[in-house]
Amino acid sequence: MDTETTDQAAAAAKLGRRRFLQGAGLIGAAAPITGGILLSAYYYNDPTGAPAGLATAKPIAVATPTGTGSTSAAASDADAIDAGHKKGIEDFLKNQTTPLTKGKGNQPLAFKMDGNVKVFDLTVDEVAWETAPGKIEKARGFNGTIPGPIIRATEGERVRINVKNNLTASTTVHWHGVLVPNNMDGVAYLTQEPIKSGASYTYEFTLRNSGTHMYHSHHDSTDQVNRGLLGAFIIDPKDPSTYPKYDKEYILVLNDTMLGFTLNGKGFPATEALTAKKGERVLVRFMNEGMMYHPMHLHGMPMEVFARDGYPVNPPYKTDNLDVPPGSRLDCIIQAEDPGAWAFHCHVLSHAENATGFFGLVTALVITE
């Protein structure tokens, strides 16, 4: 390898690490242990291969009490930590009736019929998106929202999806997990030309496989997907009896890095709770659009996993800690049994909680009588 090639490779690696750290809010941050300062939320050896190091959008400093007056200092620190945790829960509960942030994604996308074809319209937009109270990110979203709207149709139907690119950059749309003809797969320069800024492109195909799927950009995807160009694509089975019965349905899109740790485009306390009445069967469709593993842990009761990536899991299995790898989708049923508010969060704790309280990938399952 010549010197120029070596220098280019080094520059690319440096840029990749810098972009990762920018997304995690850590450019310029350090983690000194001396002097009693500890920056929380370490996440080393990410199994996805992300650069080792810190991965939290909210590093905090906690003074370690030393010398005279350390007892009162410790009490003061403990009180501050308690107050932060309490405020987070109070804000989360307020958010369930009065949203703390602007913007809501993951809503059903309307369609119109053209003969026997379901026609959906998508725009690809530059978006100022509020992920948590006061935290507005330079993002990108389908139809101006993060996640983009839910595309939903039934196995055997034909769909047409018109995409208008309002970005300043090129893009494409890939139908992740959906069986499509090669020229509809949405990979720039491999199956199509990129959709240039201001241009439009039409995808059309017949739905061959039911299940929980996704759609997202497949052009500069580290940036575009992690800045919000993602959404759910649900294909219901032609024969409903082949899918478990349920009373309520939730779609949880996990993301990380560029916009911080988000659940359906929001970080705690701006996340929405899942609600159910005692005895109801709750369907949760998980999908990980990020670059990290997120083991989602439900307190109080198990989740029964019955499908992965749209394919049946046989036999189904129960767990209270479900690992959702990048690109994967998992379907599970929760039997709502014990009333109360049950914590529901990623168990990589640096994605969910530090001395200021909960943040990021945290919500709750609230069961009422």
The main β sheet shows up as: 6 strands, mixed
CATH class categorisation of the largest domain: Mainly Beta
| SS summary, helix count | 3
What is the CATH third-level topology name of the largest domain?
Answer: Immunoglobulin-like
State the total count of DSSP E strands.
Answer: 22
Counted up, domains total 2
Structural class: mainly beta
For the record, give the distance between the C-alpha atoms at the N and C termini, rounded to a whole number.
Answer: 68 Å
Strand order of the largest sheet: 11-10-13-18-15-16
* Poorly predicted runs: 1-68
Assign an overall shape: globular
Order of helices and strands: HHEEEEEEEEHEEEEEEEEEEEEEE
Rounded mean pLDDT score? 86
Annotate the secondary structure layout.
Elements: H1 3-23, H2 70-95, E1 112-114, E2 117-132, E3 135-142, E4 151-154, E5 158-165, E6 174-176, E7 200-206, E8 211-216, H3 221-226, E9 230-236, E10 248-255, E11 262-263, E12 274-277, E13 281-288, E14 294-298, E15 303-308, E16 311-319, E17 321-324, E18 329-335, E19 340-346, E20 353-354, E21 357-358, E22 362-368
Give me some keywords for this one.
Immunoglobulin-like, six-stranded mixed sheet, single chain, 14% helix
General description of the model:
- The protein has 369 residues and is mainly beta.
- The protein has 2 domains: 1-63 and 75-103 and 244-369, Sandwich (Immunoglobulin-like); 105-238, Immunoglobulin-like (Sandwich).
- It contains 3 helices and 22 strands.
- The protein has a 6-stranded mixed sheet with strand order 11-10-13-18-15-16, with no helix packed on it. Strands 1, 2, 3, 5 and 7 form a 5-stranded mixed sheet that branches. The protein has a 5-stranded mixed sheet with strand order 12-22-19-14-17, with no helix packed on it.
- The longest helix has 26 residues, at 70-95.
- It is globular, with a radius of gyration of 22 Å.
- Mean pLDDT is 86; it is low at 1-68.
